[in-house]
């Protein structure tokens, strides 16, 4: 497993890095089994330390957690507890998907764009229908089953997930959380 432990304008010592690696290894040995990489970022927000952790599993799932505390170790411990709770909640489902999937999830590369929003009333009628692109990034679109996509969306706490359906492997599918609390699935076929 690859670890990337960084700090935003904070020096991260060897003791903290060792604590993070040992703690995450214990959590994933207990619940996930096959993580591929973990990214942990520490930062400050006024008087608090913030710890954000993102872990990619070989099944294509991404677990994310974030915690605040007045001490840096406490912020990581809170973040680790949240991630452990997520994985414990989905342990049975994760095990079921581990049995079915023998290879890591296929990823398709795509482009992600951030479009400028109009905030002023005079911009309600745009001059052109072409929006202004203010950022362009590369993104990965996983090939998952619908059940895996819903689980990935729930673990990440995301409102929407774009994926390629494992059964058809053509086009993209979307799962999203509806206003009524249910999950919606858009399948173009």
Automatic annotation (TrEMBL):
Molecular-function GO term, any one: ribosomal small subunit binding
Identify the main location: cytoplasm
Keywords attached to this entry: Cytoplasm, Translation regulation
Please, one GO biological process term?
A: negative regulation of translational elongation
Q: Where is the Sigma 54 modulation/S30EA ribosomal protein C-terminal domain?
A: 130-184
Q: Please give the GO cellular component terms listed in this UniProt entry.
A: cytosolic small ribosomal subunit
Subcellular location per UniProt equals: Cytoplasm
* Record flagged with keyword Lipoprotein: no
CDD domains attached here?
RaiA
Keyword presence, Cytoplasm: yes
Pfam families tied to this protein: Ribosom_S30AE_C, Ribosomal_S30AE
Assembly notes: Associates exclusively with 100S ribosomes, which are dimers of 70S ribosomes. Interacts with 100S ribosomes.
In UniProt terms, what function does this protein have? Required for dimerization of active 70S ribosomes into 100S ribosomes in stationary phase; 100S ribosomes are translationally inactive and sometimes present during exponential growth.
- Sequence similarity: Belongs to the HPF/YfiA ribosome-associated protein family. Long HPF subfamily.
Tell me the PANTHER family matching this sequence: 30S RIBOSOMAL PROTEIN
The name of this protein is Ribosome hibernation promoting factor
This protein's species is: Boseongicola aestuarii
> What is the gene called?
yvyD
